[in-house]
Amino acid sequence: MDVRVTSDAAAFERTVFPFLQADPVLHTIIMTNVHQRAIGPSEQEPGYYVSVHEGDVVGAAMRTPGRPVYLGALRSEYAEAVADAYLDVLPELGGVAGDRPAVERFADRWCARRDVRAIETKATRLHKLGTLTPLSAPGSARLMRDGDVDLVAGWARDGFPEELGDVEWAEEQLASGSMWIWEVDAEPVSMAGYHLPVYGACRVGPVYTPPEHRRRGYAGALTSHVTAHILAAGNQACLYTDLANPTSNRIYHQAGYRPVADFVDLQFTA
Length: 270
Prior knowledge:
Layout: E1 2-6, H1 9-20, H2 28-39, E2 48-54, E3 56-63, E4 69-72, H3 79-89, E5 95-98, H4 100-114, E6 117-129, E7 140-143, H5 149-159, H6 167-176, E8 179-184, E9 187-194, E10 201-208, H7 218-232, E11 236-242, H8 246-255, E12 257-269
Parallel strand pairs: 4-5, 10-11
Antiparallel strand pairs: 1-2, 2-3, 5-12, 6-11, 6-12, 7-8, 8-9, 9-10
Helix pairs in contact: 1-2, 3-4, 5-6
């Protein structure tokens, strides 16, 4: 087994995408993040991308700046070797996420070497659309407009404070045409975006409804609208849900999404 580390996202894409593209839904997070960095401007802080080889590529992992290591669907027998590769280049690490068996083996190795402990912070489920069942609610969907930048940035900051929320990110959603707004009587009440396709797969998200507008079906109706838009372009649709939120899991099941795999996030702490 050969484990290789690079900070060149474009080179990593060329190396591992022939392996990952066999299931672009299962590998959606790695593929969308790596592709975005491969075609985008250089970042001040390097990312570290790991490929596992047994002749051909058999596994991949990534660590983008400021984020945990993401193992995705990495097979558990490769987790310790991947942890060793990151131990060589990262003096510290906030956490690790991905398929539970691989994450736990990675964490055991990291904790033993760095004298920290791991705490589970989140469990998520990846869903892939089967047959779309459109959901309805009062109002209608429209694409994000120039005047929505501050609104979208604020909603993202409220809903996903550790990941999203700056104006630059909202402007990118506007430019890509990938963010939709649900309106009732001309008032925005919910938003849902999606990641542009990579090898024919689009991941829906973020989806957010302010507390005062929840429990009225807006997010479900908008998500099914965005899903229909993805399908009309000839792409597959997938999304992640928080397993601690049974409401969203139920709604997306009603729209036609079906489970593919479960993942876990662990945080490292002294």
